[in-house]
């Protein structure tokens, strides 16, 4: 209790609110008696029941692939079939979907080709049911969180009703998507964080440990589903720092005790989630051991691990030597092999010499022979001559095997990237000029080291002009067979565009080694997959003329997402928040800011408050502050993101917004009721206010429920449609 | 009255010799040999263009920032604007007043030296520390290089430092003489300097935010001060403090709001007002702007559109410009060629007449607005205006075919409908050529479609597809013109779906032959229109913020992480024959010390903070306050001017770091004085510390001298000397091959 008092005196947020005292029935005090112990479980049960009912209602409909189910359903199938794929999100969500499908008897054979494909006999309900189950859990989680923070049953009920009857939350929970899974872990983390905070008066007790480690587990889960989970990690992190700061200021706590606190948090909130996160990836890579559509995104060394990939179980010579026949792969994501063919660059595109491109597929034209720059290698093919290895810093010549032309560059501008130099194939039977000389260098090595197949990252510097061989990633027009442009870049920056590695390697004079020796370690795989994911994420850029969703659209419910159906005869589902609820949330945020500023200024000015008002201001500032921080953390970063954004990215923030609504209205009504003198009127005003809000929510849900449960018939613009008159904004498309 | 007869007039002037000496040193270091080299140096090639355009009063848009900086550069004056800014290193012709054009940035750079001194003094540090700070700024090679040319950074840094200084002066006056004349002066100067900084470059916004936050924090402390009354009542108290006034919180709040928010915003607007008032001629960047804006400039579009009828009527002949203006501005176009029967990828087309968007003025850009119910293609008398919601047909002027769309996939965007001019092949593909006119920026639902001003969407009546520019350019068969499609799933508003009438006249010829002659003749009639300043401002501001430069690769671009350790440099200029060259290269000693100081500050602060939390006070309370406030300004200034660059995606250069490094340099004397005052407790330690300081400062001076040939560009160095200056492998110093 001592800490709590000190905290209150300082004006900070005490971690542990004063224990529930007997409610004082002061004159005019709006404090209602704490509800009897029995009502709380009953309320929880009611809320949970409603939540499950609303999410599982018409879960089978529509019996075809909706929206992003085409991605995530497909990825679930990949897990069941154990084929390797690539996605920009971490694996946990899709693994759980796959697991749910597997357990419910789905065999992974449905192709999930495009939205609108009928499921027919395939069992999809298990995967949808799993997502709906997690989506339903959000409501009780939010209810418990608000109850814990505000100690007010009406506030918690209001939050719960908002989430139960929001059409957006219902729709998002009913399909095979990552969002319900993400939000489940996210809310789980918030709930256990809040619970753990209220256990602060009895640290190291069983329940304290339980909630602390549960926070860690949920954090790992949230991060493992989508990188957006990082925001909740940040929220918990800030909360923990504040918590530790508070403990440090408590002089009755010895430094040893403080160290224990610190250690416990490091253990549960850093070590445990990290371990779980890595375990997820370990399972991911263990399950997906067959070659599949994601191979090309990964490095050659990684590909050698996949059953069915052409690099699997191959044995090649390890070190590069003169006379070796090799293929070179560009290290940019989905970079191609260095390629050339008999065709020449067309008139007007640089010098009219043989094309050099990057080609994504395996082909005989990808083969190059490494030769010394000064001597022809006819003698090297003689089996008796000694093997000479290529070393870092050597000057070499690359001869195209099929056409016997040398890799060549000169100061003509490249076909597409005008500031770079053109790369061509030049010379006859390996005889060219000094523009065919390239210096080979391994990244991060000193001179003299040997060059390893697959493992060495190599750059080729053109000796005469000093530029570096690179692939710009731009697709050539038809004359270049729509292969990727290869240029020589004069900007000497270390980007994957100008780095290459050797993939195939044929040299009969060298002993072959199995590629298993080159097997990347787990840490390397983990790092590589993260790099690939991050690059993939930042690669999702909106096109210039595309209409995209903007973050400021979201809180005002400006535009939804079409989940299913376009035409009048289709079964249409449209992801859109219940506008009444969303606008209530929006207004509440403004209201909350106003209340906070007033309260904070009043406290700072030293205005004397009654104990009820003090308690209210504590709830508003501390509980509300925590939730608002969550909202900000889950919303503001989107303004800075360059990638394509969608409406459903707002839903985690919407959860926080809804909790804030519950807390704020509770405080506001209590405050207003506080001015009324007889406690009966006060209670009437308080109760009436809540009832009005809840009725409003129920009525709006009655109006808008077809958005989630499906609309058939004419579009809303047609007056005969059941949704006629409900298209309040022109930007809604139902 | 005649007091001066009785007593002599005495003028006492207190001159801070330190300040004068520092200013003189600053001027010498920045102004010495200012005309050398008499050639275009680095970004002068870029800013010089704008100066020229100012001189010629030609409108331009610079996407890199607001116009105040360019205006200041143009103030140099005495220049007729006739110089071709096309190449770095080009010799200036005689008509370019190099000295006066470079003077202003150099002055701003020179004044940063005394400003640094004053800031440290206002932060309550010793004069010794203040002189140290000023000298470090003085001997900073990168700041010298950057201030000696027609570049904006030195002006920006000057305004930033001025803003910080005036805020500190204001804050120090706060306790004793609130609402006095000098209090007001410094408060207002803060606001003015902030808006000037933002007006020079948007980077100034960071410091403005920092100062706003600081002011907010200070005001928050004032709220907690119970001695201030709530209401605005200034009454002389009867007691011993009769001189003092009880000044209210509200007055303080309003004064700050006025000076720190309203005045800066007003000034910022006024920069644009002057900019737009000065530049009234059309110029190279016209096509970025909307037709309405272009029409407000003298020459260019205005010459054509001047005197056009305002209201579009049935029978009007119009050209339709896409509002987006990206990738290039273009007009709805058609020509006699048809879509190929089969595309290269095997898909089929309707084989009807192509409709494209064409980036050049052409007679094939003319369309006639026709009433579907009537046959005539001329404007009746009186003209019947087209209103929002009306259904029209668009007839291509030269070929008299109707604009049409149907359920055929577009050539490059197969998800959208093909748009064509209908040719009746007598197959079962009927004409679908009715379009509903929807005015996007209407005020009421009965608005008339106006030339230039109205932004219009064309909605296809049969399929409710919207006429849209897809942005892709067609292959050879479409002459590389831009593709136009009917977008079925129109999601909300996008500028690529909006069109406006640019050229317009009332059609008078009924016969096709006459009409062709009419279409070829230029438009002429009378009405002029003017945009309000606010409309122009919003458009220009929006364009500045959203315009993206495609070219993201530059030889000397760097990443934000390279700046701390100065792993990168920028070659500004190279003498055409000798080895003389100018580089943007910082003083290595200063940069290293600044990093060390920042690190030391961070560690010490953390240490103190943790100890204070456990109620252990290592340094006296006022020293702690001093430490925190100095760190807040200097360290905070460094952080806000540096960290945001990690989030930016634009091309970055070393000179973006200069404002941050200026603040970081100010932190060095702060840390040093703190170390000597509080951590060197014995006399011996103190004297050792002083000796170290002298040695360290000599090192700084030595590095300055070593690199000054690269900052000033003279004397010319031999290749071996240049090679010796290449202290880091990553520096790109140009060495001529012998």
UniProtKB/TrEMBL annotation, chain A:
Superkingdom as given in the UniProt entry: Eukaryota
Membrane-crossing segments per the record: 84-105, 125-146, 153-175, 209-242, 262-288, 580-603, 615-633, 645-665, 685-704
Q: What compartments host this protein? A: Endoplasmic reticulum membrane
Functional pathway:
Protein modification; protein glycosylation
Return the SUPFAM superfamilies for the record. MIR domain
Q: What class of enzyme is it?
A: transferase
Q: Reaction(s) catalyzed by this protein?
A: a di-trans,poly-cis-dolichyl beta-D-mannosyl phosphate + L-seryl-[protein] = 3-O-(alpha-D-mannosyl)-L-seryl-[protein] + a di-trans,poly-cis-dolichyl phosphate + H(+); a di-trans,poly-cis-dolichyl beta-D-mannosyl phosphate + L-threonyl-[protein] = 3-O-(alpha-D-mannosyl)-L-threonyl-[protein] + a di-trans,poly-cis-dolichyl phosphate + H(+)
- Sorted UniProt keywords: Endoplasmic reticulum, Glycosyltransferase, Membrane, Repeat, Transferase, Transmembrane, Transmembrane helix
What's an example of a GO molecular-function annotation for this chain?
dolichyl-phosphate-mannose-protein mannosyltransferase activity
**What's the main place this protein lives?**
endoplasmic reticulum
User: What region holds the MIR domain?
Assistant: 317-373, 387-443, 448-505
Entry EC no(s): 2.4.1.109
Give the bilayer topology.
Multi-pass membrane protein
Q: Where is this region: Disordered?
A: 1-37
Pull one GO CC term from this UniProt entry.
endoplasmic reticulum membrane
Q: Which InterPro entries match?
A: ArnT-like_N (IPR003342), MIR_dom_sf (IPR036300), MIR_motif (IPR016093), PMT-like (IPR027005), PMT_4TMC (IPR032421)
Q: Which family does it belong to?
A: Belongs to the glycosyltransferase 39 family.
Q: What is this protein called?
A: Protein O-mannosyl-transferase 2
UniProtKB/TrEMBL annotation, chain B:
- State what protein this is by name: Protein O-mannosyl-transferase 1
Annotated TM spans: 96-117, 123-139, 151-171, 183-200, 261-280, 588-610, 622-640, 652-672, 684-704
A Pfam family for this UniProt protein?
Answer: PMT_4TMC
Catalytic activity annotated for this protein?
A: a di-trans,poly-cis-dolichyl beta-D-mannosyl phosphate + L-threonyl-[protein] = 3-O-(alpha-D-mannosyl)-L-threonyl-[protein] + a di-trans,poly-cis-dolichyl phosphate + H(+); a di-trans,poly-cis-dolichyl beta-D-mannosyl phosphate + L-seryl-[protein] = 3-O-(alpha-D-mannosyl)-L-seryl-[protein] + a di-trans,poly-cis-dolichyl phosphate + H(+)
Which residue range or ranges hold the MIR domain? 309-372, 383-440, 444-504
Taking the first listed entry, what is the main subcellular location of this protein, grouped into a coarse class?
endoplasmic reticulum
PROSITE patterns, from UniProt? MIR
Membrane protein topology class: Multi-pass membrane protein
Native organism is Cyanoderma ruficeps (rufous-capped babbler)
Q: Which SMART domains match?
A: MIR (SM00472)
What pathway is it annotated to?
A: Protein modification; protein glycosylation
InterPro entries under this entry? ArnT-like_N, MIR_dom_sf, MIR_motif, PMT-like, PMT_4TMC
Q: What class of enzyme is it?
A: transferase
Task: List localization entries.
Answer: Endoplasmic reticulum membrane
Q: Its Gene Ontology molecular function terms?
A: dolichyl-phosphate-mannose-protein mannosyltransferase activity
Reported EC number(s) for this entry are 2.4.1.109
Is Transmembrane included in the keywords of this UniProt record?
Answer: yes
The entry's keywords? Endoplasmic reticulum, Glycosyltransferase, Membrane, Repeat, Transferase, Transmembrane, Transmembrane helix
Report which superkingdom the organism of origin falls in. Eukaryota
Organism placement in taxonomy: Eukaryota, Metazoa, Chordata, Craniata, Vertebrata
UniProt similarity note = Belongs to the glycosyltransferase 39 family.
UniProt-listed SUPFAM superfamilies:
MIR domain
């Amino acid at each position: 209790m001592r800490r709590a008092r000190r905290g209150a005196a300082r004006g900070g947020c005490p971690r542990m609110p004063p224990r529930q005292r007997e409610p004082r029935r002061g004159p005019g005090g709006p404090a209602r008696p704490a509800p009897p112990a029995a009502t709380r479980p009953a309320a929880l049960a009611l809320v949970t029941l409603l939540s499950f009912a609303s999410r599982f209602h018409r879960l089978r409909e529509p019996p075809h692939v909706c929206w992003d189910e085409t991605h995530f359903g497909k990825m679930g199938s990949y897990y069941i079939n154990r084929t390797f794929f690539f996605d920009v999100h971490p694996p946990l969500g899709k693994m759980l979907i796959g697991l749910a499908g597997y357990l419910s008897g789905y065999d992974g054979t449905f192709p999930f080709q495009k939205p609108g494909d009928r499921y027919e006999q395939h069992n999809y309900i298990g995967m949808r049911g799993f997502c709906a189950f997690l989506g339903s859990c959000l409501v009780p989680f939010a209810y418990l969180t608000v109850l814990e923070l505000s100690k007010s049953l009406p506030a918690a009920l209001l939050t719960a009703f908002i989430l139960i009857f929001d059409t957006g939350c219902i729709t998002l929970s009913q399909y095979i998507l990552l969002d319900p899974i993400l939000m489940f872990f996210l809310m789980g983390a918030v709930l256990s964080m809040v619970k753990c905070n209220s256990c602060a008066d009895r640290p190291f007790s069983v329940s304290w440990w339980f909630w602390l480690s549960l926070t860690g587990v949920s954090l790992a889960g949230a991060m493992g589903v989508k990188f957006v989970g990082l925001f909740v990690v940040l929220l918990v992190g800030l909360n923990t720092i504040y918590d530790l700061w508070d403990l440090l200021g408590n002089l009755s706590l010895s430094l040893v005790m403080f160290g224990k606190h610190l250690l416990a948090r490091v253990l549960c909130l850093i070590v445990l989630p990290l371990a779980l996160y890595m375990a997820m990836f370990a399972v991911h890579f263990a399950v997906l051991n067959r070659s599949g559509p994601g191979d090309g995104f990964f490095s050659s060394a990684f590909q050698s691990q996949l059953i069915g990939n052409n690099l699997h179980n191959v044995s090649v010579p390890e070190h590069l030597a003169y006379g070796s026949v090799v293929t070179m792969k560009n290290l940019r994501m989905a970079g191609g092999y260095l390629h050339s063919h008999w065709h020449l660059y067309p008139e007007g595109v640089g010098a009219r010499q043989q094309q050099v491109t990057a080609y994504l597929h395996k082909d005989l034209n990808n083969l190059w022979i490494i030769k010394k720059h000064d001597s022809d290698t006819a003698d090297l093919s003689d089996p008796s001559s000694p093997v000479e290895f290529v070393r870092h810093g050597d000057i070499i010549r690359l001869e195209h095997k099929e056409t016997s032309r040398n890799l060549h560059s000169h100061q003509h501008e490249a076909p597409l990237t005008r500031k770079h130099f053109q790369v061509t194939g030049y010379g006859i039977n390996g005889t060219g000029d000094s523009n065919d000389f390239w210096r080979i260098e391994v990244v991060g090595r000193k001179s003299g080291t040997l060059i390893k197949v697959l493992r060495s990252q190599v750059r080729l510097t053109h000796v005469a002009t000093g530029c570096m061989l690179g692939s710009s990633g731009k697709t050539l027009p038809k004359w270049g067979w729509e292969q990727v442009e290869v240029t020589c870049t004069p900007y000497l920056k270390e980007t994957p565009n100008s780095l290459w590695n050797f993939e195939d390697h044929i040299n009969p004079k060298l002993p072959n080694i199995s590629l298993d020796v080159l097997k990347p370690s787990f840490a390397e795989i983990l790092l590589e997959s993260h790099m690939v994911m991050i690059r993939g994420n930042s690669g999702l850029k909106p096109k210039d003329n595309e209409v995209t969703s903007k973050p400021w659209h979201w809180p005002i419910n400006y535009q939804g997402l079409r989940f299913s159906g376009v035409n009048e005869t289709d079964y249409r589902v449209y992801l859109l928040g219940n506008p009444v609820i969303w606008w209530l949330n929006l207004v509440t945020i403004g209201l909350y800011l106003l209340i906070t500023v007033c309260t904070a200024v009043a406290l700072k000015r030293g205005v004397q408050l009654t104990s009820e008002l003090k308690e209210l201001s504590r709830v508003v500032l501390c509980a509300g502050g925590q939730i608002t921080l969550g909202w900000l953390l889950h919303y503001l970063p989107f303004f800075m993101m360059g990638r394509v954004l969608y409406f459903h990215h707002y839903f985690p923030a919407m959860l926080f917004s809804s909790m804030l609504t519950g807390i704020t209205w509770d405080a506001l009504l209590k405050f207003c009721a506080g001015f009324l003198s007889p406690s009966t009127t006060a209670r009437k005003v308080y109760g009436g206010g809540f009832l009005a809000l809840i009725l409003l929510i129920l009525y709006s849900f009655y109006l808008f429920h077809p958005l989630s449960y499906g609309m058939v018939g004419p579009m809303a613009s047609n007056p005969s449609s059941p949704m006629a008159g409900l298209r309040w904004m022109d930007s809604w498309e139902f | 009255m005649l007091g001066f007869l009785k007593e002599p007039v005495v003028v006492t002037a207190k001159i801070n010799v330190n300040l004068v000496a520092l200013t003189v040193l600053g001027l010498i270091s920045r102004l010495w040999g200012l005309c050398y080299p008499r050639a275009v140096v680095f970004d002068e090639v870029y800013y010089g263009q704008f100066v020229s355009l100012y001189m010629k009063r030609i409108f331009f848009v610079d996407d890199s920032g607001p116009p105040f900086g360019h205006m200041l550069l143009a103030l140099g004056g005495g220049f007729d604007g006739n110089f071709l800014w096309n190449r770095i290193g080009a010799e200036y012709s005689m008509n370019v007043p190099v000295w006066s054009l470079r003077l202003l940035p150099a002055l701003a750079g020179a004044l940063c030296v005394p400003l640094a001194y004053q800031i440290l003094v206002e932060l309550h540090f010793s004069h010794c520390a203040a002189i140290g700070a000023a000298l470090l700024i003085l001997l900073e090679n990168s700041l010298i290089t950057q201030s000696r040319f027609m570049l904006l950074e030195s002006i920006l840094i000057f305004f930033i430092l001025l803003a910080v200084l005036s805020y500190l002066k204001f804050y120090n006056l706060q306790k004793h003489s609130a609402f006095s004349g000098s209090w007001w002066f410094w408060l207002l100067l803060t606001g003015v300097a902030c808006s000037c900084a933002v007006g020079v470059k948007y980077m100034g916004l960071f410091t403005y935010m920092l100062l706003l936050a600081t002011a907010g924090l200070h005001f928050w402390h004032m709220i907690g001060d119970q001695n201030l009354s709530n209401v605005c009542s200034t009454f002389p108290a009867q007691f011993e403090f009769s001189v003092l006034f009880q000044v209210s919180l509200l007055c303080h709040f309003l004064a700050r709001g006025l000076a720190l928010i309203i005045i800066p915003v007003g000034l910022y607007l006024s920069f644009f007002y002057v900019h737009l008032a000065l530049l009234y001629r059309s110029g190279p960047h016209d096509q970025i702007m909307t037709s309405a804006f272009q029409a407000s400039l003298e020459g260019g579009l205005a010459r054509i559109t001047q005197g056009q009828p305002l209201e579009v009527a049935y029978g009007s002949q119009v050209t339709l410009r896409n509002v987006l203006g990206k990738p290039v501005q273009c007009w709805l176009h058609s020509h006699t060629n048809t879509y190929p029967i089969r595309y290269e990828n095997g898909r089929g087309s309707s084989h009807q007449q192509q409709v494209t968007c064409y980036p050049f003025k052409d007679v094939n850009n003319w369309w006639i607005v026709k009433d579907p119910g009537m046959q005539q293609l001329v404007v009746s008398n009186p003209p019947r205006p087209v209103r929002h919601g009306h259904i029209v047909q668009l007839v291509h002027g030269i070929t008299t075919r109707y604009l049409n769309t149907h359920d055929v996939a577009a050539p490059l965007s197969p998800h959208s409908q093909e748009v064509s001019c209908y040719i009746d092949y007598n197959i079962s593909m009927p004409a679908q050529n009715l379009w509903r006119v929807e005015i996007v920026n209407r005020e009421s639902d009965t608005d008339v479609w106006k030339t230039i001003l109205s932004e219009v969407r064309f909605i296809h009546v049969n399929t409710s597809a919207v006429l849209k520019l897809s942005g892709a350019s067609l292959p050879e068969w479409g002459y590389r013109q831009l593709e136009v499609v009917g977008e079925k799933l129109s999601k909300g508003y996008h500028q690529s779906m909006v069109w406006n009438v640019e050229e317009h006249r009332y059609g008078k010829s009924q016969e096709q032959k006459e009409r062709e002659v009419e279409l070829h003749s230029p438009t002429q009639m009378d009405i002029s229109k003017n945009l309000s300043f606010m409309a122009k401002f919003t458009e220009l501001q929006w364009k500045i913020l959203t315009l993206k430069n495609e070219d993201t690769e530059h030889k000397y671009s760097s990443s934000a992480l390279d700046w701390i350790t100065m792993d990168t440099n920028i070659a500004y200029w190279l003498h055409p024959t000798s080895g003389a060259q100018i580089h943007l290269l910082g003083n290595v000693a200063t940069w290293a010390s600044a990093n060390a100081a920042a690190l030391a500050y961070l560690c010490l602060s953390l240490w103190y903070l943790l100890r204070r939390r456990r109620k252990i006070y290592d340094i006296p309370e006022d020293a702690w306050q001093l430490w925190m406030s100095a760190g807040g300004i200097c360290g905070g200034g460094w952080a806000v001017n540096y960290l945001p660059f990690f989030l930016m995606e634009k091309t970055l250069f070393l000179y973006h770091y200069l404002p941050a490094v200026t603040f970081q340099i100010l932190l060095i004397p702060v840390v040093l004085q703190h170390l000597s005052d509080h951590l060197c407790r014995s006399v011996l330690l103190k004297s050792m510390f002083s000796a170290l300081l002298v040695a360290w400062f000599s090192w700084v001076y030595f590095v300055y001298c070593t690199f000054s040939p690269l900052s000033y560009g003279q004397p010319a160095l031999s290749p071996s000397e240049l090679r010796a200056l290449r202290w880091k492998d990553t520096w790109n110093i140009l060495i001529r091959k012998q």
